[in-house]
Fold:
Amino acid sequence: MTATIAPPQPPGPPPAPPRPSRRDRSARACSNRLHRSEHRTAALFIALPVLGFALFVLYPIGFAVVTSFTAWNGITSPVFTGLDNYVRMIGDQYFWKSLGNTVYMMMAIPVGLLLSLVLALAMNRRMRGTTFFRTIYYIPVISSIAAIAILWQWAYNGDFGLINQALGMVGIDGPNWLQNPATSKLAIMIMAVWKGLGFSMLLYLAALQSVPRQLYEAAAIDGASTLQQFWAITVPMLRPVTFFLVVTNIIGGAQIFVEVNIMTPDGGPEFSTATIVWYIWRQAFEYLNMGYATAISLMLGLLVFVVTALQFA
Amino acid sequence: MRHRVIRTAGVIACLAAAAGGLAGCGRGGDPDTLTFMFRGSPAEEEAYTAAIEQFEEDTGVTVDIIMTTADEYATKLRAAIVGGQIPDVFYFDPGSVESYVNSGVIQDISGYIEDSDVVDLDEMWAYGVDSYRFDGEQLGQGPLYALPKDVGPFSFGYNATMLDEAGIERPDPDDPYTWDEWLEVLEEVTQDLDGDGGPDQWGTGLNVVWNLQAFVWSNGGDWLDEDAAEVTVDTPEFAEALQFFADLDTVHGVTPSIAEAQTLDTYQRWMQGQIAFFPIAPWDVPIYQDLDFEWDLMPYPVGRTGESASWIGTLGIGVSAATENPEAAAELVAYLSGDPDTQRHLVEAGIQIPNLVDMAYEYAEDDSTPPQNKEEFLRVVEDYGRALPPTFTYNPQWYDELYTNIQPVLEGRMTAEEYLAQAEPRMQDFLDMANEQAEMSRGTE
Structure:
């Protein structure tokens, strides 16, 4: 432990240091003692999060791994069933369907990013009312997802919903959004995009404002058009934020649940909106298949991990 | 300085331990305090509070009430059970009896109930009591693990004002319609009153999840064989019933279309007086008192068997295996389930029909409030009601499977026969899995 904060040694064997005097040595011992007590305090500070991690992350993960090899209803003692849950998953059409639905819904992510970038570009200009619009677009982010889901459920109502009324004004006879397997996923995606727009926009806005002005000035002097400036300066400067948003959006998108559960509590017409987390929840708490639900959760965790790792690679 | 830190930490640790110890004492350690966990409406809480006060006065035992909303209840109870903090007295459904008994969550209360002066099992609905018996192998017989909180017959009713206006005779409670007779009435009553080209008054508007049972059972079909080992939906009787159900909309047009029903559900349309025939359960009665049309109960129209059929829901009140004072806990169950004053309270509040048979007949004779034919509720309980098909299976996944992909049948894109032939093997797979799971959790004891 002491070694880690000992003053850095110069590389190579030191040229025979002069024997430390008595005073030096005692000073050293004193500072070691001081360090030791500081280390102890530091260790205490570190111990807390480590303990928390072990208790609330490591232990549950370990527990989940064990549970995934059992049949368990959450009350009686689990029965070891080997790989049964995993084998069952492979043959379970609803597992695949809900996984497919989840992946399908993630197609909303690039659309959302693009829209939020456009919005951020618009908000980045000097014009009146930007604060007002920024607030407007950020409100969905801070609103309760449950409340929002209920509002959207009304908006999607086939006959009286806001959306179809608006469509009706331009002569389009809108579908019964949430009850039609052809539109139900789209309906949830639209809502998810709307909900996430403000957050991505805010990050893009911050990134846009930190792009050094000189770059644009220099490019303008060299005769670059606005579009060229956008592609050659703005887009590359925004890459880190885009990367961050893609990673977090995929992780979040893989776990979409609340909006689905509120807007289509039975998984949508013909299982069309059931997502993987919704299916896990149903297996665990409606069908009392905790073991199976845990196995699916681990599979989902693994998938998310791999996808995230690939993005970093 | 360091010493002070350690001392402070020590004090905090001691406090934490003490708090933990106290909390531990608070739960179940005191035989004179019972916790009662239940779900329900404020009206139910009020009625039960009266019963509980009576109980506290008579026995000197204090009762802590934990009330949750209907949605939260299952999750909270599960957490309490897993965490070993089981309330002394709580609600559960008949489907949970087996797993709770197997895992030692609830206890046999037969002895206490027999000794109790508050209830006499012979005075209660056999269906309600037998739903909570389990002999280790089979449900419905053996020792008693709970008393019914209520029995909920899912009956059928009609808008009498609408029938009168259409010049149709009101249904005879003793002579149910056949499906054909009923269909004639439905067609007659489905009308376009405002002349906009589409009907705005319909014969009926039923939800397949809650109403298919009445038609299938009455036609001689069923979901399962007797041992709950085989799914039996792929039969001509079942197919005919489902087809009849779907045809009401797609062929005969006597119900709001699927789109219309999603816009304003048929429950709302019934209450607005747009629908002639609709299911009615006891919990609907307080709300229906305010309807501005006359309504009453009737037996479900009958299929091939010539007998009406429907389902009954029930919820039980039982006692934790870990309670310090099982005798008092069982006594509380008896008060809540069978005390005449409590029952009267609950009935007056319109929450349920009485658990006590004699009182129920008294209630049925009272025709000062609608429905007039209250006896139909009692007939469902005593005569033609059954438990919902998945009540006694490990989980309802096999049962849900029937409804997950049923939409094409309801829209007329597929025949019932075709669909059921496809659905049965899938349902069977899920049922096998559920039975296997049940077997395994039984094996752990």
In short: Chain A touches chain B at residues 37, 71, 73-79, 81, 88, 157-160, 176, 179, 181, 266-267, 269-271, 285-289 (CB under 8 Å). Chain A has two domains: 22-67, 86-312. The longest helix of chain A spans residues 22-67. The mean pLDDT of chain A is 86.
